[in-house]
User: Fold these one by one.
Assistant:
Number 1:
Amino acid sequence: MTATVRAGKRYTDMSRNIFAIFILTFLLNKCYPQMIRYPFPQHNAYHKGTIKPNHLSQEKLDNQVLDFYIKWKKQYIHQISEANQAYVFFEEEGSILQSVSEGQGYGMIIVTLMAGADPDAQKIFNQLFNYVIAHPSNPASTLMAWSQLADNKNKDTTSATDGDMDIAFALLLADKQWGSQGEFNYSDSARKMIRDIMKKEINQDTYSILLSDAVESDSKDYFDMRSSDFMPLHCKSFEYATGDQKWKKVIDKNYALFSHLQNTFSQDAGLVPDFIIGINSNAKPANPRYLESKYDGCYNYNACRVPLRIATDYLLTGDNRSYEMIRRINQWIRETSTGNPDNISAGYTLAGNDIKSRNFEAPSFIGPFAVAAMIDSSNQQWLNNIWDYMTGFKFEDFDYYDNSIKMLSMLIITGNYWTP
């Protein structure tokens, strides 16, 4: 009888201890949400044979990233305190826009990777996500309206696929960084958004990537896409998070599409255009003024992100399709610039010729070429040169787009990029 009582007491004490641990864990998550798992700097080991700048110490590289982040955050993270929201400011002269979903995606990825160095990273991330939630492309969607006006209202009720993909990827990063037991269930939110991206922003016939959720199967642009929307590393993360095998089809089909474009329209330079049309029959570069400018069929301000998007797949997963595509671009850009980053143009024809009258530097082009250089040690001096050239630019000389892509590029180049 005594033994039974003692045993019962032990079980009671054990239950109390388990309950106490549960309460303590709950309180810690509430009071100290930033139990950071991957604080900056991470110094991630990328795929074997890839490189980083080797003429500066890792500490110096990290400090350059942190210094730039402090400026970037101060300039572009704008808070709406009364709504507990924040947005990435779309700083462009003459624009009526407050923000765009593309910027929210950049911002959410950047602050997650900078957690640890920035003690407010999770707070800012949650505010950015609150802003996303407050601006859906339509009331029933998890996708974000592509742009917001100065009065905090959506410009229209359509999405932009690149913004949605970056936001979903950022949510997966946030789950890995902080867990999903706090204010938001990041993992659940990411999976819901990924399902909507697959349903509404992926062509279910060709598995190319639609421009937005406004494009339907009977739309004239149903078989068109923006080249920089292909983010193979994101797609692999989406497949892993959801188990949806369709993401593998997206990866395979779009790598094949890009190979076709390189071989058919840019044999010397290996470039792809801003916009691609006719993917179901005879895929080719878009005509001038297809959507944005007379350079829509060139390597311009959308396609400039492609080397970053593709090269990160090789850096993190070693996918040889990425290597082959980026190798061609590396060879061409080194030759056409004669190894001098100052000769990099802000835009090219697919033949590899400079777009005329672009007599200025653009980090949105330069940063991705630096990321591309990382795939092979033969590019070491070239990478070192680009790093010094890019980091020598004055922050105030460039706008949100250039500085945000530069910020992402710097994180990748220094080994401080990782994947969920």
Number 2:
Amino acid sequence: MCRQAVRRRVTVSANSILAILLGVIASGTIPSARAQSAIDDVHIQPRAERPIEDKMLVGGPKLDSGSKPLKVLVDLVLVPVTILDGMNRLVRGLGRDNFQVFEGKHAQDIRYFSSEDAPVSLGIILDVSGSMSDKIYRAREAVLDFLNSANPQDEFFMITFADKPEQAADFTEQVEDIQSKLIYAMPRGRTSLLDAIYLGISKMRQAKHSRKALLVISDGGDNHSRYTESEIVAQVKEADVMIYGIGLYDRRFPTPEESLGPELLRKVAEVTGGCSFTIDNPNDLAQVTKAVGVMLRNQYLLGYRPDSVSRDGKWHKIKIKLKQPKKIKFSRPELQFGYSPPLKLGTGIT
């Protein structure tokens, strides 16, 4: 504990000062300066401070609700799942009975199930490095098409990155706010992809919706970040933010960093439960961004309470099995995920 020396203040009211002055005038003489007591003695006691409750209720009784605050700890694991058939087409119309959830080897009771289009907090991470100069026009169009098809309650922000990442637009529900910033996104410099993802994850702490996602659009690997790949992978693994990556890569990679770009985006996206796409034609960008939007709005959300929660900080394996409806062949009949306790209500685990 840090101790601080406090000097007491002697307060004198205006009436007291007036009384002292009148006393001096009436006597006709000024008393001799003879010390009668220690200089630090308190001659006038300050007014007693009222309790904080009385300040809040001036003239009224002290507030007492008569009850203690209620605290409830609920361990609920929420797992968002996207289902594709054998031809990578979205499968809609499934119900709770089509899913089985296992934690380790133990089957779990699905307490919560939803397939509705819930609002999303979405971050756009756009590459504006020098190599994007011949692709930036298509990238702008694709971002606007993606946002125009969003849920009216969605919120967005945008980060651009070249030599360093910059927040181009704060959280907003107005597409026009993003559009006005896209106009000034001019390609220049190198590629700080990992730093931009770090900034996007940090910004998501201000999101108001429980569903959170980042859309990363880049044409190369990282060559100018302070953070390493392992540091970013560890962070996004814990962030509860799904990442979708779109890589615009030339058929021939001019640098070693660009040759590692597709694998870098894939690794960062898949560890969050998202996915990445690799294209070599900027004209295909709008179609791919629309596909990402459709995937975001056609997820099944499964919720269960673990039989026992061991708060050891270790990852717990989750497996989801699908009970295949007739005439549908799934591309991945089993999905495996993980989570690390402690859990919070509404925490999505992918």
